[in-house]
From TrEMBL, chain A:
Source organism per UniProt: Epibacterium ulvae
Occurrences of domain Nitrite/Sulfite reductase ferredoxin-like (ranges): 554-619
Name of the protein in question: Assimilatory nitrite reductase (NAD(P)H) large subunit
PROSITE patterns per record: NIR_SIR (PS00365)
Residues in BFD-like [2Fe-2S]-binding domain copies: 418-465, 480-529
Pathway noted in the entry: Nitrogen metabolism; nitrate reduction (assimilation)
Automatic annotation (TrEMBL), chain B:
GO terms for biological process, alphabetical: nitrate assimilation
Keyword Oxidoreductase in annotation: yes
Pfam families cross-referenced by the UniProt entry: Rieske_2
Membrane-spanning parts: none
A molecular function (GO) term: 2 iron, 2 sulfur cluster binding
PANTHER family membership: 3-PHENYLPROPIONATE_CINNAMIC ACID DIOXYGENASE FERREDOXIN SUBUNIT (PTHR21496:SF23), FERREDOXIN-RELATED (PTHR21496)
Xref: NCBIfam families: nirD_assim_sml (TIGR02378)
Location of the Rieske-like [2Fe-2S] domain: 3-100
Alphabetically ordered keywords of this record: Nitrate assimilation, Oxidoreductase
InterPro entries given in the database record: Rieske-like_NirD (IPR012748), Rieske_2Fe-2S_sf (IPR036922)
Lineage: Bacteria, Pseudomonadati, Pseudomonadota, Alphaproteobacteria, Rhodobacterales
Protein name: Assimilatory nitrite reductase (NAD(P)H) small subunit
Length: 810, 112
């Protein structure tokens, strides 16, 4: 017989329970009440909605059609106000009385409001539902908001408003942010990142009173007398299970509604799921356990056996640019040891807490790529004694097998969380795939996994690959080439962390499948090695494409082109004469002015290269690297020297930049432009790095291109003087050199790491200076004209090793 | 009758590199692998006559510098999906010197 089920609250837990029921075709008739005037949506995604990354429509989990298809009677905007358990009826706020066979509580929790004087003023809100979110979205740029509470919710609210240009102050009572999830060091990094986003952070600050005017909030007054003016005050200090109705109905209630392992309350016909429950003394505030409860409740309703088991939980913060993960317990205690890894330059902090050879807690900031793996170690209580020394570096370092990221994903249990934002576990993704979602887009559409911050995209793809086997073509995590299964990113990381300083070491340690690589991996490896170990590594010409081996551009007939540098596009009559003489002497068929403000001698015979360069060198010219994955040209306009609009010496700055940067090798070609004013005659805004001079200084922007894709640069920073421009350019070039995949131009690298991240590095003076210094170190070795050496030492190799005459054959 | 011509020292060629031997009938590319084997091939890719000696040498293959065809140094055959082949000539190393068989010149004449 059809069971009549009444559900109180259309929340994340009850919504999931209904999905399970309908997926199993349970014989049920459901009436769904919700105090909010709408159905189920993904509450945790309110933060991306607030930040403007998503809309409400994007986060609706069940739409009208879904309810209609499953014959759910929806009563949204209506509350249940009373329950008669004897009669098995509920009363709605309009007086309707409805009978049930089974009743399910999914009432969630209420945000806690500190009863400060003034807490009931207009403009004091919590952060719980769409209405709250819309209030915050209603603020104009420049208006002020105060957030009380430096926990997960408070920070997401603060970052979301700050992204809209609101002037936000976070007031937190404890000494560091998110103290429940983070230790002090990670809290410090987080604080720094938020300050960089323009958010004011006050820790160890006690709120005293909310001040108002005409019934509306005006400011927050702190204990120490500080007054923080605000147009909106958001309290995000905690939640309390919503139990009033259950209490009145006479159910057993502690802090939450008591439930057993089957999610039954003290009344066998009443169940409860979600944040409103108390199970075995514990309360819940994250979705992962609620989803488990939802499944168990559905099974209980269908008469199947199931038991809810509490598990370790992990937390991620959904604030763009703050990569943060924490799980388990990391309080200091006897017998506990820490493994800590810091990389100040990248702002990375990792800490593992070990107890009796098990990982019991983990905090990561700045690099959370391996967090799922560590979370697995915590949950499974894995014995880590064998890998202790390398543990902190993650799964890629733990012996032969684990090197394969696919194997690691295959080994993840089904309940491993893949998408932190949406609380999507591997099992759900696998289900979706088996139900026909066979590419990333479809998995996103059906599960929402990887649909918000996107950091788990790679993992989702790996789950696709593991589940579909040969039917899936991995788009992003492509191995470098047939010689290895590792991606470029893996290899770069391993070269650094395992300190691999020669090609042989890379191939040996990373298990290359070929004796000496191939034409795809060797140029990339050679680049990675020289970029990461400029002093130790010996450049390998045999691993370079012919253009870089012979420092000239090969033509379709096997001849070469020769392009000497013309610093900033400036030349002299003497240089022009030397070029003309060389063109005559070596019978150069074509002399062309390039798009890069210099002269190209095309059709030079390979054998003649050392000689023509000896002549050009003698006239003071050096290689233009027109062939290289390295600095090409710095295009300039005439600037203040001649132009009536010029604001700064664009030509002079361009020359200085080119003299500083030339000879450096980069993941792909690197082109600069310096324009003297926003008329931008040097086309600076479609270069990899562009500088536009303005009255007040210099706008440095990055990520332009005008090749197969046309990209406009994005502003990185504006600075006041030439010295700063030079430092910023050297620093950002170095970050690109150290971080990018081979053959990614700056714009592609920027798409991957995010302009925000690059800005944070450049704006931090310490990081900027350190990066510029690393660039200088590398330049002390590589800023030299290759031809000086080639002419002296290698000229022979450009000639045939032997000439045989016909007679010899007879 | 087979007779070998000394074309130079093994060390004249960088490991994973190549040098040319010029003949009146065009250039022959002499390759040296990572394992110090030597191979001699016409210096003209079967695709569009790309100069193979300028390619990247890996294993017993070379990747043409113009459009990345991979050519086997042992057989002269294009690898993978590409089709075509280039003439190969007997070559050997002895006492640190590289020797090509004289007959290769005759074969080249015959092939013309
Ligand atoms: C010589 C020159 C054309 C000219 O006659 O003006 C040229 C010639 C070549 N370009 Fe270019 N590019 C030249 C300016 C440009 C420009 C314009 C500019 O820099 O202001 C662009 C668009 C701007 C940009 O790079 O964003 C340009 C976009 C490309 C691209 C596409 C890059 C991309 O990211 O999409 C390639 C292909 C590649 O690099 O992979 C390319 C590749 C090439 C190569 C190197 C192709 C090759 O590997 O053989 C050409 C060599 C010709 C030769 O035989 O020497 N060339 N190339 C220009 C040399 C400038 C210099 O003085 O160094
Ligand atoms: C902004 C924000 C960000 C978050 N981010 C994360 C995150 O990143 N990760 C994570 O794991 N968790 C996150 N959470 C927590 C997560 O959203 C909650 O744990 C989850 O929504 C709780 O689900 P629930 O079904 O128990 O309750 P809810 O989703 O709150 O649903 C309860 C519903 O019951 C209704 N209701 C209550 N009483 C009645 C009544 N008497 N009659 C009718 N209806 C009633 C309410 O109106 C409400 O709609 C976040 C929460 C917020 C607010
Ligand atoms: S960009 Fe400005 S300064 Fe440069 S040439 Fe054009 S008008 Fe003159
Ligand atoms: S000429 Fe060799 S690949 Fe085209």
């Amino acid at each position: 017989m059809t069971q009549k089920i009444i559900v109180i609250g259309a929340g994340m837990a009850s919504g999931r329970m209904l999905e399970h029921l309908f997926d199993a075709n349970a014989d049920v008739a459901v009436t769904l009440f919700n105090a909010e005037p709408r159905g189920n949506y993904n509450r945790i995604m309110l933060s991306p909605v607030l930040a403007g990354d998503q809309t409400y429509q994007d986060i609706v989990t069940h739409d009208d059609d879904w309810y209609a298809d499953n014959k759910v009677i929806t009563r949204f905007g209506e509350k249940i106000v009373a329950i008669d358990r004897e009669a098995k009826t509920v009363t709605a706020d309009n007086g309707d009385v409805l009978a049930y066979d089974k009743l399910v509580f999914g009432t969630g929790s209420n945000p806690f409001m500190i009863p400060l004087p003034g807490h009931d003023l207009e403009g004091v809100i919590a952060y719980r539902d769409l209405e709250d979110t819309e209030r915050m979205m209603g603020l104009e740029a420049g208006q002020k908001a105060v957030v009380i509470g430096g926990g997960l919710l408070g920070l997401e609210a603060a970052a979301g408003m700050a992204a809209r240009g609101v002037d936000v102050t976070v007031v937190h009572i404890m000494g560091h942010l998110m103290e429940r999830q983070l230790d002090e060091a990670a809290g410090y990094l987080l604080r720094k990142a938020l300050i960089d986003k323009g958010i004011t952070v006050k820790c160890a600050a006690n709120s005293k009173e909310i001040l108002g005017e005409d019934g509306k909030v005006k400011a927050l007054l702190l204990d120490d007398g500080t007054e923080l003016p605000c147009d909106l005050l958001v309290m995000a200090v905690g939640i309390r299970p919503n139990v009033a109705l259950a209490q009145e109905a006479g159910l057993m209630v502690g802090k939450g509604i008591h439930v057993d392992d089957q999610m039954l309350t003290s009344d066998a016909d009443v169940l409860a799921v979600g944040e409103c429950v108390e199970h075995d003394g514990a309360l819940f505030g994250l979705v992962a356990p609620l989803y488990d409860q939802a499944k168990v409740a559905a099974q209980t309703l269908m008469g199947e056996e199931a038991a809810f088991v509490q598990k370790e939980l992990s937390t991620k913060l959904k604030v763009t640019g703050c990569d943060l993960f924490s799980a388990g317990d990391f309080a200091e205690a006897d017998g506990r040891e820490d493994i800590v890894f810091r990389d100040p330059a990248r702002g990375v902090y990792k800490r593992l807490v070990i107890e009796e050879n098990r990982v019991v807690g983990a905090v990561f900031y700045g690099d959370t790529a391996d967090s799922n793996w560590f979370f697995g170690l915590i949950k499974d209580k894995t014995d880590i004694s064998d890998m202790r020394d390398t543990l902190i570096f993650g799964p890629a370092y733990q012996g032969g097998d684990a090197l394969d990221p696919m194997a690691a994903v295959a080994a993840l249990p089904l309940d491993a969380e893949i998408c932190g934002c949406n609380g999507i576990c591997k099992g759900q993704i696998v289900e979706a795939i088996e139900a026909g979602a066979t590419d990333l887009g479809a998995v996103r559409a059906t599960t929402k996994a990887s649909a918000s911050c996107g950091t788990c995209t790679g993992l989702v793809e790996q789950v696709l690959a593991v589940t579909l086997g040969d039917d899936f073509q991995m788009p992003a995590a492509e191995p470098m080439c047939g010689c290895t299964d590792l991606t470029h990113e893996d290899v770069r990381r391993l070269i650094k962390s395992q300190e691999l300083k020669s090609m042989a070491a890379v191939m040996q340690e990373l298990g290359w499948k070929t004796s000496c690589g191939c034409a795809k991996c060797r140029p990339a490896l050679n680049y990675y090695l020289l970029a990461d170990w400029p002093v130790e590594y010996q450049d390998d010409p045999q691993s370079r494409f012919i253009n870089e081996r012979k420092h000239a551009n090969i033509q379709k007939d096997g001849t070469f082109s020769v392009v000497p540098r013309m610093w900033g596009g400036i030349t002299t009559p003497d240089e022009l004469r030397a070029i003309a003489d060389a063109a005559d002497k070596y019978e150069v068929p074509t002399v062309k002015v390039t798009g890069g403000q210099r002269i190209d001698l095309l059709g030079v015979k390979g054998e003649d290269l050392p000689d023509i360069w000896a002549d050009l060198n003698a006239a003071g010219m050096v290689s233009g690297h027109a062939y290289s994955k390295g600095l090409r040209t710095v295009k300039t306009c005439v600037g203040t020297d001649h132009c009536r609009f010029g604001t700064q010496d664009s030509t002079g700055l361009g020359i200085k930049l080119e003299k500083d940067l030339w000879g450096s090798w980069t993941p792909h070609k690197l082109k600069l432009g310096v324009s003297g004013c926003p008329r931008n005659c040097a086309e600076a805004t479609c270069k990899d790095i562009g500088i536009v001079c303005v009255d007040s200084g210099y706008q440095v922007s990055i990520g332009g291109a005008a090749g197969m894709e046309v990209k406009e640069t994005k502003l990185l920073i504006q600075v006041a003087n030439e010295e700063e421009v030079m430092e910023v350019v050297r620093a950002v070039t170095q970050l690109y050199r150290e971080g990018a995949k081979y053959l990614d131009r700056i714009w592609k690298w920027m798409d991957k790491v995010g302009l925000d991240w690059i800005k944070e590095q450049i704006e931090d003076l310490e990081i900027r200076k350190a990066a510029a210094a690393r660039f200088d170190l590398s330049q002390s070795i590589y800023r030299r004209d290759p031809w000086a050496d080639h002419v002296k030492e290698k000229a022979d190799t450009y000639k045939p090793m032997k000439e045989i005459r016909l007679e010899a054959a007879e | 009758m087979s007779e070998w011509i000394d074309v130079g020292a093994l060390d004249d060629i960088a490991p994973r590199g190549a040098r040319l031997v010029k003949t009146p009938l065009g250039c022959v590319a002499v390759f040296r692998t990572y394992e110090d084997e030597v191979f001699a091939l016409d210096n003209a890719c079967p695709h569009k006559k790309g100069p193979l000696a300028e390619g990247i040498v890996h294993g017993k293959s070379v990747t043409c510098p113009l459009h990345n065809w991979v050519i086997s140094l042992e057989t002269g055959q294009a690898q993978g999906a590409d089709e075509g082949s280039v003439a190969t000539y007997p070559a050997r190393v002895e006492d640190g010197r590289i020797w090509l068989e004289r007959s290769f010149l005759q074969m080249r004449t015959a092939a013309e």
